Amino acid sequence: RICVDICFSDFSEQFSGLSSPIAAESFNYKKFFEMVGLKKKSPEDVKKVFHILDKDRSGFIEEEELKFVLKGFTPDGRDLSDKETKALLAAGDKDGDGKIGAD
Q1: Contacts for 29-34: CB closer than 8 Å, 24+ residues apart
Q2: CB under 8 Å to 47, separation ≥6 — which residues?
Q3: For a disulfide at 100, which of 11, 22, 84, 92, Cβ 3.0-4.6 Å?
Q4: Helix or strand or coil: residue 87?
Q5: pLDDT in tens, 39-93
Q6: pTM
């Protein structure tokens, strides 16, 4: 269980309400952000989540790191497809450099 004031395992209850949270090509990043409540988190909490997802500690979340994001939120998590990963990356990539920065 990874915890830094935010425990990803605490979100698994929210995912259990979905009829098919792990079905292939079912990932909707807007719904995901809404479910985990990142928009309601403080900037400090969002940065903590960022650092957990930034597995290689590069200061950026790259496409390969995003593929595994669901596994951090639910034990039944699956890898995102390339299409789903690219959509999630595009949603968070503010400057178009192909990665998500902490800011």
Answers
A1: 29/84, 29/87, 29/88, 29/91, 30/91, 32/88
A2: 102
A3: 92
A4: helix
A5: 788 888 888 888 888 889 999 999 999 898 887 777 777 889 999 999 999 988 9
A6: 0.70
